[in-house]
C-alpha cells in the first residue's frame, strides 16, 4: 500500500488525515523484490570532530613551572587521538583547530556540524592546586544546558549555517519556523545526549585500565 499524508485546519483544531491506497502490488512473497544488503563499501566513514581546548591568546591552565600551557597539552593529545582514529578503517577525523590559534566557542560545534561529524570530542587538561592530583573527568551535556542551547540556536539562526542532521546534510535551521525548528533540534539533541552517555560510559570503562582516579559528570 502507498501512503499519503495531508494536514488541514478546522475551526476547532489541527487535523491530520492519513489515506491508504492499494498499490495493486502482489503480496506473494515470490514476487517481492529482494532486500538490498548494504555492503561495507556503501557505508560512509564515522566522522569524529576533535576540539583541542583553548589556543592562541587563550593559554588555558598554566603548569607549576609557569611554562606548560593547557593549550599545548590539549593540542598534543588531540593530534595523537587523530592519528589513532585515522589508523582505524571506517573512521575519519576533523580537527577543530590544528595549530596555536583560538576558535570561538560557538564556532567549534558549528564546524563539527558543517563537516557532518557523528561525534564531537573536546579535549581539556584540568588544573588543580595539588600537583599529586591525577585522573580523568568525562563531561556530558546536561538537560538544562541542552534546552538553553536549543533555544539559542533557534533564536539566533546563525546566518543559515547552523545545520540539522538529514539526507544530504543540507537542512538549515533558518529554513523552518521557530516552533518547528525547536522541535527538530530538541529531537536531535535528545538523541545526541543518549549517544553521548553511551560513548562516555565506554570511554570510562576503558580508562579503568589506565588511571585509578576517574570521575563521570
Radius of gyration: 23 Å
Q: Which strand order do you get reading across the main beta sheet?
A: 4-3-5
Order of helices and strands: EEEHEHEEHEEHE
Give the strand tally. Answer: 9
Task: Write up this protein.
- The structure is a single chain.
- This protein has a three-stranded parallel β-sheet, with helices on both faces.
- Helix 3 crosses helix 4.
- The protein has helices spanning 70-86, 107-114, 143-156, 178-207; strands spanning 2-9, 14-21, 46-52, 91-95, 119-123, 136-138, 163-164, 171-172, 214-216.
- Mean pLDDT is 76; it is low at 1-12.
- The chain is globular, with a radius of gyration of 23 Å.
- A hairpin with a 4-residue loop joins strand 1 and strand 2 (14-21).
- The chain has four helices and nine strands; from the N terminus they run βββαβαββαββαβ.
- By secondary structure, it is α/β, with parallel strands linked by helices.
- The N and C termini lie far apart (48 Å).
- 32% of the residues lie in helices and 20% in strands.
Amino acid at each position: 500500500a502507498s501512503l499519503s499524508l495531508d494536514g488541514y485546519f478546522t475551526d476547532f483544531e489541527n487535523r491530520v488525515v492519513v489515506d491508504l491506497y492499494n498499490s495493486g502490488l502482489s503480496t506473494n512473497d515470490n514476487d517481492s523484490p529482494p532486500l538490498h544488503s548494504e555492503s561495507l563499501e556503501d557505508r560512509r566513514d564515522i566522522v569524529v570532530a576533535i576540539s583541542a581546548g583553548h589556543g592562541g591568546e587563550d593559554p588555558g591552565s598554566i603548569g607549576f613551572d609557569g611554562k606548560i600551557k593547557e593549550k599545548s597539552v590539549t593540542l598534543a593529545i588531540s593530534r595523537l587521538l587523530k592519528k589513532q582514529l585515522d589508523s582505524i578503517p571506517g573512521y575519519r577525523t576533523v580537527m577543530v583547530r590544528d595549530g596555536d590559534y583560538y576558535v570561538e566557542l560557538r564556532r567549534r560545534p558549528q564546524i563539527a556540524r558543517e563537516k557532518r561529524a557523528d561525534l564531537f570530542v573536546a579535549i581539556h587538561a584540568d588544573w588543580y592546586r595539588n600537583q599529586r592530583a591525577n585522573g580523568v573527568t568525562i563531561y556530558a551535556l546536561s538537560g538544562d544546558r541542552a534546552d538553553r542551547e536549543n533555544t539559542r540556536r533557534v533564536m539566533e539562526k546563525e546566518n543559515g549555517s547552523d545545520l540539522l542532521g538529514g539526507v544530504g546534510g543540507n537542512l538549515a535551521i533558518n529554513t523552518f519556523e521557530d516552533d518547528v525548528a525547536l522541535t527538530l533540534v530538541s529531537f536531535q539533541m535528545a538523541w545526541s545526549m543518549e549517544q553521548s552517555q553511551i560513548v562516555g560510559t565506554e570511554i570510562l570503562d576503558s580508562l579503568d585500565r589506565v588511571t585509578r582516579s576517574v570521575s563521570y559528570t
